[in-house]
Design brief:
Strand content: 15-25%
Shape: globular
CATH superfamily: Dihydrofolate Reductase, subunit A
Mean pLDDT: 91
Number of strands: 9
Strand order of the largest sheet: 5-4-3-2-6-1-7-9-8
């Protein structure tokens, strides 16, 4: 069984995910709409934040105390290459009740031992890369997770969307134009093949959406919510 998966992102009017002033308080207040059981975040987000992490101390090796009354979500990070080495810092933050690394059979054994010694749960799914469908099924089965909110950039979003794993898209559209030539959007994936017929025909693989809500927020920000048509 798969949990319900929601992508929640903020973009400029021209679809960029950075380079414009973002109201973080508003963003995360709206993110609490779903009361998710798990937050699925891209590893790149935490690699960028690694400079903020202090050195490890003995607390990094202590077991995480489970509390059945704790309603905070789990933090889940795909990391088949074993690059996240700041779990001790993430544990010190007040946002999550537990932590899960998603790995694959190609993940270095050294990293799996690293996680075990720091009491970070690990799910191994997939060969060369993380099998996101299998990982989500295991998260649901092992932890009883019913709702997952994705807090990531275009790469992880793109993988989830192309694999048909997303149920809802929540989009905050800011009244800003950023421009630029480098890709920086909420959905990065290989180009779809062009259709053989007329140019106005949509190529196979285009994801259809159904608008379920639209609100105008302070600062002329538009909040759009779409159901993904499977």
């Amino acid at each position: 069984m798969l949990p319900r998966v929601i992508l929640h992102n903020a973009v400029s009017l021209d679809g960029r995910i950075e380079g414009f002033p973002l109201d973080m308080q508003q963003y995360y207040e709206l993110a609490s709409t779903w009361k998710e059981d798990a937050t699925l975040a891209g590893s790149q987000t935490f690699l960028k934040a690694a400079v903020e992490a202090p050195p490890e101390d003995e607390s990094a090796f202590l077991p995480i105390q489970a509390d059945s009354e704790d309603r905070r979500p789990l933090l889940v990070i795909p990391d088949s290459r074993g690059r996240i080495r700041t779990w001790h810092y993430l544990r010190s933050l007040p946002y999550w009740r537990g932590f899960v690394a998603l790995c694959s059979r190609s993940t270095p054994q050294e990293y799996l031992h690293y996680l075990e010694h720091r009491h970070i749960d690990c799910i191994i799914a997939g060969g060369e890369h993380v099998d996101l469908r299998a990982a989500l099924e295991e998260i649901c089965s092992r932890y009883g997770v019913k709702v997952v909110r994705v807090d990531a950039g275009g790469t992880l979003n793109g993988l989830l969307l192309r694999q048909g794993l997303v149920d809802e898209i929540s989009l905050l559209i800011y009244p800003s134009l950023v421009g630029g030539e480098t890709q920086s959007s909420i959905f990065r994936a290989p180009d779809l093949p062009l259709p053989a017929g007329p140019s106005w025909q949509a190529p196979e693989g285009v994801i259809s959406l159904h608008l379920i809500d639209a609100q105008r927020l302070k600062g002329d920000v538009m909040w759009l919510r779409y159901e993904v048509r499977h």
